[in-house]
Amino acid sequence: MQQESAAASQSLPTAVAYLLLCILYFALLAWAKPNYGADPLSYAGDAYRFAQQHSLANTRAIWEFGHLLWRPLGVLLLPFFEPLGYRFHVSPQLVPLMALITLSVLFTLAATLIVCHITRLLSGSNSAGIIVSVLFLTSNAVLNYARSGYPYAPGLAMQLLAVSIIVTPFRRTSKLWLRALVAGGALAASVCFWAPYLVTVPGIIDLSFLWEEGRARAQRLRFSTQISIVAFIAVVLIFGAAVALNQFRSFSDLSTWVRESSHGWSQSHRLIRLATGLPRSLIAMGDQSLMLKRLYFHDPYAPVTLGQALASLIWKPLLYTLAIAALVWTLTKSQPGRNLLLGAFCCWIPLIFFSVAVFEPGSLSRFLPGFALLFASLGFLATRIHWRNPTTWALALFFSMMIVVNLAWVSPSAGAAQSQNAEGRLQALSRVWKPNSTAVLLSFNDDGIFYFEAVAPFHPLNQFHFHFLDAVEPGTLRAARFREEFASAVRETWRRGGDVWISRRLVAAKPSPDWGWVEGDAATVPWRTLSGFYRQFQTNASIGGADGFLRIAKNQSNWQLL
C-alpha cells in the first residue's frame, strides 16, 4: 500500500487526469460518426405517447420489463427538453430521444471516470487510470452506445459504481452499511436500466466477499450480505411497483410481460455466433462478420474462401482469445488478482451461458454486463505487468489493434456512401408517402435505410415518420413467420387507408453482396422462397429507379394472396 501511495503521489494529479479524460471524451464524440440506434426511436415514441395520454396500453409500453426505468426517465425529462426541441425545430415525438441521448452521453462519461477511479485504487497510478479509461472508452460496445439513447451505458455505470465501492479500502467500519446501501442500490439500478445486468450481479456481490485487502472474513461476509439484501429489496420494490402500475392480475400477465421484452428476438446457430459475438464487444468486426457467416453457410451468392476469411477476419477472434488468456494468466500470479479473477469468472461464465441459452450472443451489447470486472481486472494489472513478459505483449497488441480498428470504424468517412444511398431512397419515398403507410425493406441489414435512421435520427427525412417493416430477420426463429407478418402488416395498413411499398430488392433474381444477405442464415427462408413470395403480388407504381420501391396494388388478386 505504501508503494501504491507513493506511485500515486508521483504520477499525474488526479484532477488533471479527470479533466484530460473529459476533454478527450467530448473531443471523441465531436469527431466520431454518431450511432444513435433504432430502438431508442421506439423508446421516445412510447414516452411521448404516454405524456400525451396515460392510458393502460401506454403505461404498459413505458414500464417494459427489459428496460424498466428507461422510458419513464424520458417521460420525466420531457418538459425540460421541450423548449430545446422547439428552438431547433425537432419533431415533438423525438424530444424524449434528445433526453435519452443526453443521459447516454452523461452516463458514459461517468462510467469512464469511474473506470479511472477504480484503476487508481487498484494500481496506485493516475496515468494508468487514464490509459485503462481510454481502452474502456474506445472499446467497440462503449464507443457505439456512448450517445445512442440505449440504457446500456447507464446500467454499466451503475455496476462500475458498485465495483468501485467494493474495492475502496475500509476506513471506518461503522459506515459499512452506508457503502452497502449505495453499492446494492447501484446494482439494483443497473438491472432496472437493462434486465440482463441481473446475470452479473451475483458475481459482483461475490467480489465483495472475495476482496480481502485488509478486511476480516466476518467484515466481508457482513458487507456482501448487506449488499445482497439491499439489491434484492430494491429490485423487488421497483419491479413490484411496475407490476402494480401495469395492473397485472395473473401469473400469465407477468409471463407475457417478461416474454414480450425480447420483442420476438431469438437467434439460431448461437454457438457459432458466440465466436464473433465475444470479440465484437471489444473490437469492431464490421461487415467481416458477414464474411464469416458466408463461409460457414457456403453462400452461393457471395462465396468466401477460407483464405479470404483468415486474411481479413479470423485474426480478430484469435487475437482476442490470446489477450484474454494473457489477462487470466497474469491475474493468477497474485492473491488479489486471483480473487478478482474468481469474481470475473462468476460474472462471465453465467453471462456466456445465458447469452447462448436465453439471449443472443451475436449482439454488440450482449456482453456489456461483464465489462465492470473486465476493466477492473485491467486496472489491477496496469502497474503489475512488465514489457519483458510475453503476456504483456499479447495484451498490448490486442488493445492497440482494438483502438485503431474501432476508431477507423467510427470515423466520419465510414459509411458515407451508405448514408447517401439511403437519403436518395428516402427522398423518393417521401414524395409519395401517405399517412399510415408501410415500407417493407429486405432486413435490418438493408443497406443504408436502418443505418441512416440510426446515425441521423434528427434529419428532416427521419422526422417524416416512415413506418418500416423488415421482410425477414435472418438468424432468428421469427424468420419462419415472414409471410404471416407481411400479410398482417398489409391488411392493417390498408384498413387504415395507407399504401404498402416494397423494396425492389425483394423481387430481385438474386441478392447483391452489398445488401447484407447471407444464404442459409435464415435456415427456413432461402432467397428463392423470399423473392418468389414477393414476386406474386401485383404492383401499380414504381419510384426511386433500380434501387427504389414498388407499390402493392390494392386489388382482389392481392387480397386473395394475403
Task: Describe the protein.
- With 562 residues, this protein is mainly α.
- It has two domains: 2-266, no CATH class; 416-561, no CATH class.
- The protein has 24 helices and five strands.
- It has helices at 2-10, 14-31, 39-52, 56-62, 70-87, 95-123, 126-137, 140-145, 152-167, 176-193, 201-210, 217-245, 251-260, 270-280, 288-297, 306-331, 335-357, 371-381, 390-409, 416-432, 449-455, 482-495, 527-535, 556-561, and strands at residues 438-441, 468-470, 500-503, 539-543, 549-552.
- It has a five-stranded mixed β-sheet with strand order 2-1-3-5-4.
- A hairpin with a 5-residue loop joins strand 4 and strand 5.
- The longest helix is centred in the N-terminal third of the chain and has 29 residues, at 95-123.
- It is globular, with a radius of gyration of 25 Å.
- The model is unreliable at 1-10 (pLDDT under 50).
SSE order, as H and E?
A: HHHHHHHHHHHHHHHHHHHHEHEHEHEEH
Shape: globular
* Oligomerization state: single chain
How many helical elements?
24
**Helix/strand class:** mainly alpha
Number of domains as seen in the coordinates:
2
Low-pLDDT ranges: 1-10
Spatially, the strands of the biggest sheet line up as 2-1-3-5-4
Largest sheet: 5 strands, mixed
Strand content: under 5%
| Helicity range | 55-70%
Question: What keywords describe this structure?
Answer:
mainly alpha, 5 strands, 4% strand, 24 helices, disordered N terminus, five-stranded mixed beta sheet, 62% helix, 562 residues, single chain
Set down the secondary structure blueprint.
Layout: H1 2-10, H2 14-31, H3 39-52, H4 56-62, H5 70-87, H6 95-123, H7 126-137, H8 140-145, H9 152-167, H10 176-193, H11 201-210, H12 217-245, H13 251-260, H14 270-280, H15 288-297, H16 306-331, H17 335-357, H18 371-381, H19 390-409, H20 416-432, E1 438-441, H21 449-455, E2 468-470, H22 482-495, E3 500-503, H23 527-535, E4 539-543, E5 549-552, H24 556-561
Parallel strand pairs: 1-2, 1-3
Antiparallel strand pairs: 3-5, 4-5
